[in-house]
Amino acid sequence: MRFRASMLISAAAAALLVAAVPASAAEAEKDPCFDAHGSVKEVLDACADFIAKGSDDTKLLIRAHTIRAMGLSATGSLDEALDEMTAAVELNPKRANSYFMRAAGYDAKKDYDKAIADLDTAIGINDADADYYLLRGTVYSHKNDFDKALVDMNKKVELDPKATNGYSSRGALYRKRKEYDLSIADYSEVIKIDPKSTQGYIDRGWIYVLNDDLDSAGADFDTALKLQENNAMALVGRGVVKSRKGKPTDGSADLKMANRLEPGIFDEVRKLGIK
């Protein structure tokens, strides 16, 4: 079983995977904290009960705290989620994933220095996990320290060259650095690995817009819409391309449709540097 650290991360962050401790004990197989059934509240309560019983199985206690952290973050209780991950760290200070999970929470709270400190510790314990570098690179990017972010994202790609999230995250970083050709190359790698990646075509399409290559941008947005009809971001992209190529009426129709599907979508486009 694997947990997503992204539940502790803001929406802007990349979804990252963290290996959970396997529930090997028979006790865990029967306990509602671990059986993946029930509502979020029921699971939170079950894990609290398990912790309160004072189990002598440290691995299961860490897992219970981690599950509670994920559930609490999903309900918006980020401070309480961080408390749970701190408890997990205290149970086993040599477990890298606990620092990683807590760092994701600190990133969500924009407490970037604490996030980086935890990731430094995680990498010090296990320097072979690519996602630790990816999250630290993401945090550095949030701090606008793009040089350090790039070092970490390069390491992510080096360690995990078949994963799309390394290329897509680095592609976004290159966009922020206005290195559009390098950004296009990374999003092209995403598409090469996963030819049905709607997001890959959308992301590359916007870089083509920034690079004034409207023909290539239009082709990418068209492909994205074939893969996922009525994707608001792709519709905005196609509308922008049509308008800039002298077809304002056609472009306006796409833009209006996108706004109906997803009000506020234009704010997301502006964040990409599109004017």
- Total separate domains: 3
- Indicate the low-confidence ranges by residue numbers: 9-23
The assigned structural class equals mainly alpha
Q: Could you give the distance between the termini?
A: 43 Å
Order of helices and strands: EEHHHHHHHHHHHHHHH
Largest sheet: 2 strands, antiparallel
Helix content range of the residues, please?
55-70%
CATH architecture of the largest domain: Alpha Horseshoe
The CATH topology of the largest domain, please? Serine Threonine Protein Phosphatase 5, Tetratricopeptide repeat
How many β-strand runs?
Answer: 2
Query: How is the largest sheet built, in terms of strand order?
Result: 1-2
Strand content: under 5%
Mean pLDDT: 90
Topology:
Elements: E1 2-4, E2 17-19, H1 26-30, H2 40-52, H3 58-74, H4 78-91, H5 96-108, H6 112-125, H7 130-142, H8 146-159, H9 164-176, H10 180-193, H11 198-210, H12 214-227, H13 232-244, H14 248-261, H15 265-270
Antiparallel strand pairs: 1-2
Pfam families: TPR_1 (PF00515), TPR_16 (PF13432), TPR_8 (PF13181)
Protein name: Tetratricopeptide repeat protein
TPR repeats: 130-163, 164-197, 198-231
Tell me what the structure shows.
It is a single chain. The chain has 275 residues and is mostly helical. The protein folds into three domains: 111 residues, Serine Threonine Protein Phosphatase 5, Tetratricopeptide repeat (Alpha Horseshoe); 68 residues, Serine Threonine Protein Phosphatase 5, Tetratricopeptide repeat, CATH 1.25.40.10; 80 residues, Tetratricopeptide repeat domain (Serine Threonine Protein Phosphatase 5, Tetratricopeptide repeat, Alpha Horseshoe), CATH 1.25.40. The chain has 15 helices and two strands. The chain has a two-stranded antiparallel ribbon. Helix 5 runs antiparallel to helix 6, helix 11 runs parallel beside helix 13 and helix 12 runs antiparallel to helix 13. The longest helix has 17 residues. The protein is elongated and about 70 Å long. This is Tetratricopeptide repeat protein. Keywords: Repeat, Signal, TPR repeat.
